[in-house]
Specification:
Blueprint: E1 13-22, E2 28-36, H1 43-50, E3 78-82, E4 89-93
Antiparallel strand pairs: 1-2, 3-4
Length: 98
């Protein structure tokens, strides 16, 4: 996967900083809520890495000094959509376990 300035499609994400702190290994972290406004593949991972704050546990765009983690520290805490058959608005909430 690469970013193509000439033929690539635009991607836009918003974020909100929720908290900052330090991991047990002494590495700083920031917990953010990310809002992808477009649906491009890997856009949240790429945007975070581009701004110098890769998502912890990211094997594609993460930092070399990132601690070994059991999973990507990216979690969809809320999904909302209109059901394609019933037309009913559905919302699912699931707080992150980390």
């Amino acid at each position: 996967m690469v970013i193509c300035e000439q033929r690539g499609k635009p991607a836009r994400s918003r974020y909100q900083l929720m908290e900052t702190g330090y991991l047990a290994a002494g590495l700083p972290y920031s917990r953010c809520e990310l809002y992808p406004e477009t649906g491009r593949t890997h856009q949240l991972r790429i945007h975070c890495q581009h701004f110098g704050h890769p998502i912890l546990g990211c094997d594609l765009y993460g930092a070399d000094e990132s601690p070994s983690l059991p999973r990507l520290m990216l979690h969809a805490s809320k999904l909302a959509f209109i059901h394609p058959l019933s037309g009913i608005a559905l919302t699912f909430d699931c707080p992150p376990a980390f």
